[in-house]
Amino acid sequence: VQLQASGGGLVQPGGSLTLSCAVSGSIFSFNALSWYRQAPGKEREQVAAITRGGATHYPESLRGRFTISRDNAKNTVYLQMNGLKPEDTAVYYCNALILEVGVREDYWGQGTLVTVSS
Known about the structure:
There is one protein chain. This protein has about 120 residues and is mainly beta. The chain is about 0% helix and about 55% strand. The relative contact order is 0.32.
């Protein structure tokens, strides 16, 4: 399984950015696809998830600013980020999860850096 994240870059506060994650194989092979981020000196945190059935989940602090979506035909998951703040600066990773009874498998992309600065 390979995940290829892209779309990071430098954006001014208040700006928007869309990240993409291309997944090898069918995205329906996974129970969920997620985006995580890790800021310098901080632990990795989940910022959005979309389940196989299409349900989306966000931490309350990011709800309304971040939107996860997917293109089934392209096996690609996206993260639309609006109203970006300097504290959103981090390396963003996509994750594919297989979760079955007694088994958890996580697959990670290489990360893409998002810098929010004026």
